[in-house]
Amino acid sequence: MFEATKLNERNARVETGMKLVYLTMTLMLIVPVLLVLGVLIQKGAPILSWEFLTQIPLKGMTEGGVFPALVGTLALVLVALAASVPVGVASAIYLSEYAADTWLTRLVNLAIINLAGVPSIVHALFGVGAFVLFFGFGTSILAASLTLAVMTLPVVIVSTRESLQAVPHSFREACWTMGATRWQTIRRVVLPNAVSGILTGIILEVSRTVGETAPIMFTGAAFFLPFLPESVFDQTMAMSLHLFVISTQVPDVPEALPYGVALLLISMVLIMNATTVAFRVALRRRKRW
Amino acid sequence: MRVEHGDPDARTIEWYVDKLMASVIFLAGISAIIFIVGIFGFIAKEGFAFVLDTMDVGQFFTSVQWRPTSETPQYGALALLVGTASVTGLAVATAVPFSLGAAIYIAEFSRGSHREGLKVLIELLAAIPSVVWGFIGLSVLNPLIIEWFDVPIGLGVLNAGVILGLMAAPIMTTIAEDALRAFPDSHREAAEAMGATRWQIIWHVVLPGAKKGLTAAVLLGVGRGFGETMAVLMASGHAVQIPGDVFDSVRALTATIAAELGETAAGSEHYQALFTLGIVLFVITFAINLTADLIVRGVRKGD
Fold first, then answer.
1. pLDDT the model gives residue B5
2. Counting Cβ atoms within 10 Å, is residue A194 exposed (0-12), middle (13-18) or buried (19+)?
3. A251: phi > 0 → left, psi -120 to 50 → alpha, else beta; which?
4. Inter-chain contact A179–B285, Cβ cutoff 8 Å?
5. What are the distances in angstroms from CA B32 to CA A3, A173, B194?
6. CA distance B255 to B258
7. CB B288 within 8 A of CB B226
8. Cβ neighbours of residue A202 under 8 Å, at least 6 residues apart?
9. Are A112 and A157 within 8 A, CB to CB?
10. To probe the interface with A, which of B3, B21, B84, B88 has the most A CB atoms within 10 Å?
11. Of A99, A136, A152, B57, which is most buried, counting CB atoms within 10 Å of its CB?
């Protein structure tokens, strides 16, 4: 009935061509990184073993495992979470449940954007000036974790706020009509309905915290410390700094060792991120409203 | 609640809990402001003595002599500024076309699970830690550059720029894709009704309409590159000089702080100088983020 004109044909050709061009650009972003990950796996995987995870570094960090760094990273993350999750969730509750659209709210939003945008090394300077020196924590797990907590606060705030706002407003209204106070409504209706979204945000924060290096370099992470920290006022090794140290500061490290540490670090981060994605998909399916 | 206006004795414990939580949550709510002011306050506290007493502003911005440990210390940060600018510039120049291209493909050409898969993949790329990128620059890209371009050392502007570009691209892609998705469908439909092809809609309707959001995405990418520390420290070669070509080694502002802070005594002149670099970094990134935010706000008001 309709014959394709020359113009139609040309348009179709342009369309197919453009789609190909943009697909290529997308692949150009993804493929090199996948190749690099392939190299990391190929060179790093052979060294990964139970001993690698549970041994302390030996012979000036040229042999042995990463046990103290692994434990140190765990300690840093836990203390950072203990500080940032309560503050971040409360902050998100304020923004989602209390704040009106005023200049103060706009200022808070601007501060959150900037907190996420300030370079990690500036956070490190802040950590040194505030936690190490001013509050007198010294270079310790506590100072390093608090620095990390301030740095990753925006991650918790933004993701928690999103999941709080996803709870339908009618839920709150129903609760208020029953005579509940604002806080009762938040505590018993809003938070329980948003908890999986909040958890997703926390996992995302953990994955950020695990990989950060600059903020802990001068606030609590040590280059080499072959024993485990005993309190939050001790220094500790950390996975991220350990990778920096053995790939730049220590001579005669066998090639496989830093590849192994890099692979371990990246696996931890990617597994956590993949978990949040799976969480999100499951959540969307199960949604009751 | 009527009890609020009635007999105060009628106030239940829940009323007080509600008021208490409201204040606690308000305090936490404005914590971001407290922290951002605190960050500036503390780096200014450590650095201002240097700015006021020792610093020669002219020398700081025009001299390439960064010799904080020599007998007559010199604090010229020009080479560091140029180092940061050259690496960030190369990163943005290479990453922007691909990021915008990828954003256009994901937002406009791909559909369904294909799109979701690409988005997840890009998100995962954004999660790779900075120190791992630095390690990749050091041990994967370095030998490649030496081999391909036949240069003695592969650490420099090119290496750090490529690494930084790969780091910034997923973030720019995600934000740019959001900006494209935020463009109202009704405009697309209007163009389609006029007989425009999908490419014509993208080129003549969506891209001009989403211009501000895309600019903000690029700016945030620039901010990210500017503040990146570990990757630049490891991949840039770390020599204080104005680069002559892309293979030359440079040193960035961030990397200088990271490399030297450990060797300085708290309160010394060198230490204060590093905090002054911190002030410079804070002010520049603050300006970039503020501009991006104002542009995005302009978009919201415009619609």
1. 58
2. buried
3. beta
4. no
5. 62, 29, 48
6. 5
7. yes
8. A81, A85, A156
9. yes
10. B21
11. A152
**CA B99 to CA B162: how far, in whole Å?**
13
CA B247 – CA A202 distance, rounded (Å): 41
Would you state the structure tokens that stand for residue B271, as one six-digit string? 């230490």
Q: How does the average pLDDT of chain A come out, rounded?
A: 88
* Distance (Å, whole) CA B301 – CA B182: 13
b or e along A23-45 (b: 16 or more beta carbons within 10 Å of the residue's beta carbon)? bebbeebbeebeebbeebeebbe
Q: What is the Cα–Cα distance from A18 to A24, expressed in whole angstroms?
A: 10
- List phi, psi (to 5°) of A251: -80, 155
Handedness of CA B181, B182, B186, B192 (dihedral sign): negative
Cβ atoms A119, B285 nearer than 8 A: yes
B171 touching A, CB under 8 A? no
B137 vs B181: CA distance, rounded Å: 34
Please name the member of B43, B169, B262 whose beta carbon is closest to the beta carbon of A129: B43
Asked if B197 and A94 come within 8 Å (Cβ–Cβ), the reply is no
Q: What is the Cα–Cα distance from A113 to A33, expressed in whole angstroms?
A: 27
pLDDT digits (tens, 9 = 90+) for A152-166: 999 999 999 999 998
Residues of chain A contacting B200 with CB distance shorter than 8 Å: 11
Q: Which residues of A touch B11 (CB under 8 A)?
A: none
Percentage of chain A modeled with pLDDT above 90: 43
- Tally Cβ neighbours within 10 Å of residue A1: 2
C-alpha distance from residue A252 to each of A61, A67, A241, B31 (Å): 9, 21, 18, 46
Model confidence at A58, in pLDDT bands (50, 70, 90)? Answer: confident
Summarize pLDDT for A181-227 with one digit per residue, the tens: 889 999 999 999 888 888 888 988 898 899 899 999 999 888 888 77
Strands of chain A (E only): list them: 57-58, 63-64
Q: Do A25 and B140 touch (CB under 8 A)?
A: no
| Sole residue written with tokens 């943005």 | B92
- Phi first, then psi, for residue A236 (nearest 5°) are -150, 160
Cα–Cα distance for residue pair A115/A123, rounded to 1 Å = 9
Select the residue of A117, A134, A218 nearest B42 (Cβ to Cβ): A134
Residues of A in contact with B39 (CB under 8 A): 115, 118, 122-123, 126, 150
Q: What is the pLDDT of residue B302?
A: 46
Q: Give CA–CA dist B96/B176, Å, rounded.
A: 10
Rounded Cα–Cα distance for residues A217 and B31 (Å)? 25
**B10 vs B195, higher pLDDT:** B195
Q: So what's the pLDDT on residue B37? A: 95
What one-letter code names the amino acid at B34? Answer: I
The structure's pTM equals 0.89
Among A70, A39, A45, A37, CA closest to A55: A70
Q: How many CA atoms lie within 13 A of A173 on its CB side?
A: 3
Within 10 A of A136 (CB to CB), how many other CB atoms are there?
8
